[in-house]
Amino acid sequence: MAGRNGLFVPGPTNVPDRVLRAMVVPMEDHRSPRFPALTRDCLEGLKAVFKTSTATPFLFPSSGTGCWEAALSNCLSPGDMVLVARFGQFSHLWVDMCHRLGFEVQVLECEWGEGAPLERYEAALAADTAHRIKAVLVTHNETATGVTSDVAGVRRAMDATGHPALLFVDAVSSLASIDFRMDDWKVDVCVSGSQKGLMMPAGLGVTCVSEKALEARRRTARQPVCYFDYIDMQNQNRNGYFPYTPPLPLLYGLRESLAMLAEEGLENVFRRHAYLAGGVRAAVQQGWGLEVCAKQPQWYSDTVSAVVVPAGTDAARVIDRAFRRYNLSLGAGLSKVAGKVFRIGHLGDCNELMLMQAIGGAEMAMIDCGLPIEPGSGVAAAQRHWRAHEAEASGTT
Ligand code: PLP
After folding, report:
1. Is the CB of 357 under 6 A from ligand 1?
2. Fewest C-beta atoms under 10 Å: which of 67, 205, 270, 359?
3. What residues does the Aminotransferase class V domain cover (predicted)?
4. Which CATH code for domain 17-262?
């Protein structure tokens, strides 16, 4: 197909040319005296992204899923109880992993499209007077439904009950795009990956671990862990090295993407994502007369919108048409919402006119599939939104 593919899945995201160029490097000795400077630049840069001065970032050669496993295996013991809300495919997969690793899982079942149920977290913690729950898990941004949850609220629920459990947060599709605060929210492990807000290829598990969680690893945790051992990683990282061969080009790419985030300013990056998301939602709601999957505005995600197609329409056909006819990649509906939604990722290295491509292409694909959409309606609504909200667009030029 001629022209560039329009990549609007919610990860992997578009990799900026600067980052692509930074990754074209000859291989080198990862035990040379020159190497530690690269490791340190990456880890120091990540502290700013995680908003921490006290916790320790780690980079594992894995994707985000590896960091889930690292969190559970480093900090817990066989049979420990975890508390987790399930409201989409990724929170579901986290629950599934907890089961498969042998933990006792207390699941707060929610409707897909809802966010973390703060009162129910608090009630479950208050009821656990014996403190059997060792970790509270929350997915900050549920990528399957386009729902952002209030992590600070979960922390407040924990504090209100005086519960000592660790707080694990999945920030795979929020880190470096939506405000996340490791220290302020007293998060014990934050789990993320390189291929979304960090504007990189997949391949780096990006995580950050509090002193409390490291202490659990050292003193109480008995779950077997080897490849993902925080202590091995910490011991080697201290001198700028890794316990095994690191993916060198990805580290060079990460250093560049962290520099780009710092140049734009993290708060401007968040503002840009909120502003762009507003335009996408205007296209969906005002232009097309459709709805997003997130059930309430408080849960609207600034990184991904899951667009609900009218009953009787198969969203998979729209996605297929967009790809085959217009060389446009939209995100699929996963599991429970398969066929019901298509997703537009608006995170990472993107701007208004890139998103016009996604909105215009989705619009044409929907019309081709017989949906009663007025040509240009989504594009017009997004234009109106962005032109009216220019002041919020800091960092977009
Ligand atoms: N958690 C969330 C919220 C995600 O969106 C994803 C992937 O899209 C994952 C976890 C899994 O991450 P990975 O595919 O990097 O293993």
Report:
1. no
2. 270
3. 27-305
4. 3.40.640.10
